[in-house]
Every structure is written in structure tokens, then in C-alpha cells.
Amino acid sequence: MRAAGGPGEAAAAARALSLPAEAYGNDPGVEALWAARAAQHAEVYYNLISSVEPSRLRLTRLDERIYGDFRRLFGGLRVDRLDPEELKSEAAKAKWRPFCLQFEGLVEDFNFGTLLRLDCRHGYTEENSILVTRIQFFAIEIARNREGCNDVVYNQRSDPTALEMQFLFYR
User: Fold this and answer.
1) Could you give the number of structural domains in the chain?
2) In this protein, which residues make up the domain named Polysaccharide biosynthesis (predicted)?
């Protein structure tokens, strides 16, 4: 996914996205910027786990803490295939909220809207993507990488058509 316009537009978009949500109301232009940034992040991440053995990746400087805290609180959560209710129901939100807030000020853009694949065996499609906070993305993807769930994506790298098909939804 390419950013629209040149460096000036990119800088303006970055400034706009750094302001608090209350400053905008329901501005469709800002929503489009957020969506474009989330889609770009998804594509970069998918290309990364397609190119580098996922178990070797380090996503943040706090991977150890994020993974440890995540598995202590969400030990039984199956990360290979997620049920949206485990992320979005009221009960799930009550459990996720304290986990996420502990990383405020520690993980950049910890609460930024980020796309997450529901089934890690497949790419980012409309049916297989959900919007979560950045720290939820990190927690789940760090677990997927350490637990071998994302190996299937890495192993598909020898089939370029398989990788190309993963982003048809976003083009």
C-alpha cells in the first residue's frame, strides 16, 4: 500500500493522526487516514513474517514482558484462530483494558487501531481481519511468533502467488 502524495502530505497526515480523537469528531478524511495507516502496517507486517522466520522476530523492546503478561492473563486464549468475542465482548474488553493500559507510555501508539488476522494461516482479507489496539496486536502476534503459529506464513514464501493473494482486499 503506498501513501498518497509526497513527503509533505505524509508529514501532514502524521501530524493529524497524532492529535486526540476528540479533536475530529467523525471526520471521514481522518478515518480514511487511519484506515490507510492500518492497512499499510498490516502489509508491512505480513511481508515481514513472510520473509523472516517468525520465531526470530522481535516486535518491540518489551516483547518478553508483553508475552509474559499476556500469557499470565490470557493463558487459555487460542492465538492461531481467534474468536472476535474474545476481543470485543464486554467481558473481554473488561479483561483486556487493564492489560492494555499498563503499556501506556511504554509502547508507542499502544492504543492505535491496528488490523489483526483472525486466523493466522490466512492473510488480511475483509473476512479475516479485525481492528484491535496496537498492544493487542503485539501481544497476539508475539505469541503467534513464539508458539510457531505464524510459521505457515513464512513457509508459504516459496509460492509468490500465495503471498500476492493475501492483500487483494486492500488494493
Assistant:
1) 1
2) 30-154
CATH number at residue 158: 1.10.3560.10
Q: Decide if 1 is inside a domain.
A: no
* C-alpha closest to that of 19 among 114, 136, 104, 112: 112
Inside any domain, residue 142: yes
102: Cβ contacts below 8 Å, ≥ 6 apart: 69
Contact present, 124 and 135 (Cβ < 8 Å):
no
Residues spanned by the domain of 95: 7-170
The alpha carbon torsion through 142, 147, 153, 156 (nearest 10 deg) reads 150
pTM of the model: 0.77
**Paired residues of 119 in beta bridges:** 81
Distance, in Å, from the CA atom of 61 to the CA atom of 96, rounded to the nearest integer, reads 21
Cβ atoms of 60 and 107 within 8 Å: the answer is: yes
pLDDT in tens, 103-127: 999 999 999 999 999 999 999 999 9
Question: Residue 2 falls within a domain, yes or no?
Answer: no
Task: Classify burial at 132, counting beta carbons within 10 Å of its beta carbon; exposed 0-12, middle 13-18, buried 19 or more.
Answer: buried
